[in-house]
Amino acid sequence: MMRALLSTEITKLKHTSTLWLSVIFPAIVLILQFIALLDQYSRGIPGPFRPLTSEWGIGLRQPWMVWTVAIMPILISLEAVGLVSAEHAGKHWKQLYALPIPRWSIFVAKTAVCALLTGVSLLLFSAGVLGLELLRSGLFHLHMASAIPWGLILRICGGAYLASAAVIAVQMWLSMRFAGFAIPVGVALACMIAAGTLGRVDLAGWWPWSMPADSLPFGVGHVPASMLVSPLAFSVILVLGGWRLSRREVMP
To answer: Does the pTM exceed 0.85?
Structure first.
């Protein structure tokens, strides 16, 4: 049953622009980073000499901070909205609820696809950042290709993905609960601003929208175990969200 639901959700992606969001968002951020790199090169500012490990750390930090703090919350919210847009627009919830399947399974299937799309965007962004850093190395003759930190890159990408799990579950529940994009995207924006406002508070690390940035190995995070806390919160939200949505007679 779950395999059939997942297959159906993936097939629906072919008829929407939701899949393209996972490509467009990383591409836009990478293009902006590329423009900044060209500007730096045109001004001939290679920066001070640093060990290759430090050079990689500095090069990876800025784009990943931008991605986890400002881009991921919005991307996840838009992906979640896109996955339920057809059901809301066509008023298909009654038809879905008439099927002989548990109602919670629809929520689980859509959440799984949203997590898959988030993973795709992270992989594309990670590959793009690696390419930009190798380009920077070539432009300024830094010889960074001889010391690519594969372990660090894997930790950054995997950590950000695990730490975003709670946000995925919340945004998917909001998108199924409320028709339209105003409330889900509005909540994402408000929570992202709150994460920035609470950035200096130690307890801010327990805020789901702070966890992806806290997972980065740059500086001191509020919650060192955000890569564990977020998946646990994801499981709780998935259970509670599926239970709550199952109790509704008709989705709006």
So the answer is: yes
